[in-house]
Amino acid sequence: MSYCVNCGVELQKSEPRCPLCGTDVLNPNEMPEEKPIRPYPAHVEHLDKKVDQRYIASFISLLLLIPLFTTMLANIFVSKQLTWSYLVLGGELVAFTVFLLPMITRMPRVLYAAIDAVAIGVLLLLIRILTQSNWNWLLLLGLPITALSVLMCWFFSTMSSPKCRIPVLIRFSFALACVGLLVVAIEFLIGLYLNAIAWPTWSLYVLFPCLVLASSLLLLNRRARVKEEIRKRFYF
Ligand SMILES: [Zn+2]
């Protein structure tokens, strides 16, 4: 009987290295057999989880059709035509593209963001048609705020990917600055909609704390790097 010198796990006779931490096993009393029978399967199935996820997402997508058809039928029986049930259609479209589509297909992030933006745009258009509000509401508020938010979400998801090489603190700092600027942009758009463009006021209450926090994160990152550098040079 051998035990791993590194992590202490009990080892089978057939193991040339620890299955848990990968440390080589060197026990002169128990040399590994020529053709050992390993107690583990020859290969591991990685596919199951992905397939399951896709299956469940497709199933939920089909279930979404039930409330859609029910509301449409109810709408036709009551109003003799389709009116408010279009909102259910728009809402389900957004839910599908945002939550279920990424589980069903693999696409570049930018394509997901574009599809989400279109789905939200369709929902806003349906709301505009049904409420018969003016076009300015959609063109000056709804669509620009949607576009900015989707752009930011795409940007955040790109930054949060494991491939991103930017240090974590800098990423957070950048994200905070982006949130602050988005709020200023929203105030500007509201001003445009109300024909009352002025210097930003309430959005500054969000922007300033965001910028202060962002710059302190940058400083912290610098400090962390300096500390790491000193640690490396002086070997402690
Ligand atoms: Zn081990």
How would you explain this protein's 3D organization?
With 236 residues, the chain is mainly alpha-helical. It has 3 domains: 1-44, no CATH class; 50-163, no CATH class; 166-236. Helix content is 68%, strand content 2%. It is built from 6 helices and 2 strands. The protein has helices at residues 47-79, 85-104, 109-131, 135-159, 168-193, 202-234; strands at 2-3, 10-11. It is flat. It starts with a strand and ends with a helix.
Mean pLDDT: 85
* Overall structural domain count: 3
Distance between the termini: 38 Å
Helix/strand/pairing category: mainly alpha
Largest sheet at a glance?
A: 2 strands, antiparallel
Small molecules bound: zinc ion
Question: What share of residues is helical?
Answer: 55-70%
Overall strand count: 2
Low-confidence stretches: none
Structural Rg = 28 Å
How large a portion of the residues is in β-strands, by DSSP E?
under 5%
Q: Tally the helices.
A: 6
Query: H/E series, N to C?
Result: EEHHHHHH
Shape: flat
